[in-house]
Write a structure and sequence with these properties.
- The protein is an alpha/beta fold and 553 residues long.
- The chain has 15 helices and 22 strands.
- Strand 8 and strand 9 form a beta hairpin.
- Helix 1 crosses helix 14, helix 9 packs across helix 14 and helix 11 crosses helix 14.
- The longest helix has 19 residues.
- The N terminus is likely disordered.
- This is Zn-dependent M28 family amino/carboxypeptidase.
- It holds the Pfam family Peptidase_M28.
Length: 553
């Protein structure tokens, strides 16, 4: 009780500092947020891996909280009634045993260790085995084919039976100026796009060269995310989206490869930043891989709670967050194998539960509100992709998606951000709402990291639904930007996608509780209005939204 009293006192002091004239909203309890995160990220939940016993534990916990809050099930229809989940069929793929991987450089075989020099994903193209012998290596710059920008890194090269070697991020990441938005990453810079383009080019595989700055995360994150079980949505033609080999290699490995082929890595990188770049064969160097694949179709689940609207129930405001993390994986230096995922994303799931409590405590909104806790975000936004491709409630009459991913459990900040640099009415409304708590909007401090494409709101955005992923601010009340940035940098370097992302007893959750008041007000205002926010006129997502305009009249 003492801890709860202190938490509430801290929150009330924070509210007094920031929101003397802020609107009244339901209480958001930092102690409950802490307890939810503590439970969901405990070792008992084994890192919340999809299609493991931990999934059942997670579903049972979240559903119990939704029931206690008073929201109704909003998932699949069965016998005319909604269930608490939406079934999400996924292709699950694992490499059987230790893969045999190597380069042959000038006739000399150079073995590669999985997770050390290379991180190979289990095949998602439908292969039951990967057997590649001495496939030629071809450097294709940033691996971008963008006709609208008059850009083609492939320039007619035949990649059949060959391995493409590419750089991460966009061609203008290094210079900050160019055809791809300067520092702000486009989808062409994302690793997902690069693998997709490799499949379209008919390559046998692709090796992405890891560099920490343009990737925005270290090698440990790459290794932990790519050497475990892989998932994909079930596709009719998986080979059209995936090559047999999808992998990353360490930068030093790439530099040595280029040097042995008589090439300068940095010089070629500069060439790749220009429209005139042409593919370069790494002479007398090949790649070999041999391993079996264990794959099967499994069913994971999105968890869905709903409050039906009192006047316009067919119009929907969605709050989303992913419940999954990396599960049990390779041990760290301390021998810890459980990737607990406290910040990422037990915080978002706890936020979803607390928002459900808040809405259920008030009179029913005019529009329906859905609390969507999706699966397999860590496997490529697969739960949200499945929902958006097979929505339980029509996307044309979905007002907005407000996503929460890896919120800050510390004290309050003076600002907030969103993932990416999208322009849309929803952001304008969020900014106006936040001002009532004296918070200001700060543009994504790292647009080059491509965060816009790395959270579940993207699955909605690319189909036209106005969507934002809320980001905690870095200008802390206690310590300013210096303290906020230091904490963020430490998390990314030492805890992100690592076993050490664990609940901490000294996290106050007061900043997160205040932020959720703002997000509650944003969603409540939308749910009690007849407005339809849209994208800016020059947004790449505007056209998709406008095609369904007639359904919103």
């Amino acid at each position: 009780m003492k801890r709860l009293a202190l938490s509430l006192l801290a929150l009330s002091v924070t509210s007094a500092l920031f929101a003397a004239d802020a609107p009244s909203t339901p209480t958001i309890d930092p102690h409950r947020l802490s307890e939810d995160v503590k439970t969901l990220s405990s070792d008992t939940f084994e890192g919340r891996g999809p299609a493991t016993p931990a999934e059942t534990k997670t579903i049972d916990y979240v559903v119990a909280q939704f029931k206690a809050a008073g929201v109704q099930p909003g998932g699949d229809l069965k016998n005319g009634k909604r269930e608490w989940t939406q079934a999400v069929p996924l292709l699950q793929s694992d490499i059987a045993g230790t893969p045999s991987l190597s380069f042959n450089v000038n006739g000399k075989n150079e073995p590669l260790t999985q997770g050390k020099e290379i991180a190979v994903r289990s095949a998602l193209d439908g292969s039951k085995a990967v057997s590649i012998k001495d496939a030629p290596l071809v450097f294709v710059g940033y691996g971008v084919k963008a006709p609208e920008r008059n850009w083609d890194d492939f320039k007619g090269v035949d990649l059949k039976g060959k391995i493409a070697v590419v750089l991460i991020n966009d061609p203008d990441f290094e210079t900050g100026v160019g055809d791809f938005g300067g520092k702000a990453m486009t989808y062409y810079g994302r690793w997902t796009y690069k693998y997709e383009e490799a499949a379209r080019q008919g390559a046998a595989g692709m090796l992405i060269v890891h560099e920490t700055a343009p990737a925005s995360y270290g090698w440990a994150t790459v290794a932990n995310s790519n050497t475990n079980t892989q998932f994909d949505v079930v596709r009719d033609h998986p080979a059209s989206s995936h090559t047999p080999v999808e992998a990353w290699i360490q930068r030093d490995v790439a530099v040595d490869l280029f040097k042995s082929a008589g090439l300068d890595f940095e010089a070629l990188k500069k060439q790749a930043q220009t429209r005139d770049f042409k593919p370069v064969v790494l002479k007398d160097e090949t790649f070999s891989a041999n391993y079996k694949i264990n794959s099967k179709v499994i069913t994971s689940h999105n968890i869905v709670g709903r409050i039906e609207g009192s006047k316009r129930p067919n119009e929907t405001v969605i709050y989303s967050a992913h419940w999954d993390h990396l599960g049990v994986g390779a041990p760290d230096a301390k021998g810890d194998k459980i990737y607990n995922g406290a910040v990422d994303n037990a915080t978002g799931t706890a936020a979803l539960i607390e928002l459900a409590r808040a809405f259920a405590s008030e009179p029913k909104p005019e529009r329906s509100v859905v609390f969507l806790n999706v699966t397999a975000e860590e496997k490529g936004l697969l739960g949200s992709e499945y929902y958006a491709s097979k929505p339980l409630y029509p996307l044309a009459t979905t007002v907005a998606d407000i996503n929460m991913d890896a919120l800050d459990p510390h004290g309050p900040s003076r600002n907030f951000t969103i993932s990416g640099s999208a322009k849309l009415d929803l952001l304008d409304e969020l900014t106006t709402t936040a001002k009532q708590w004296n918070l200001v909007y700060s543009a994504d401090p790292k647009p080059e990291a491509g965060h816009f494409f790395r959270s579940d709101h993207f699955s909605f955005a690319k189909r036209g639904v106005p969507a934002v992923s809320f980001g905690s601010g870095n200008d802390w009340v206690d310590g300013g930007v210096a303290a906020g940035k230091a904490a963020e940098d430490e998390y990314v370097a030492k805890h992100y996608h690592q076993p050490s992302d664990e609940w901490q007893a000294d996290w106050p959750f007061t900043g997160m509780a205040r932020d959720l008041q703002i997000l509650y007000k944003l969603g409540s205002d939308l749910a009690n209005s007849d407005t339809w926010p849209n994208w800016s006129k020059d947004s790449e997502f505007r056209a998709a939204r406008d095609t369904t305009a007639a359904q919103r009249k």
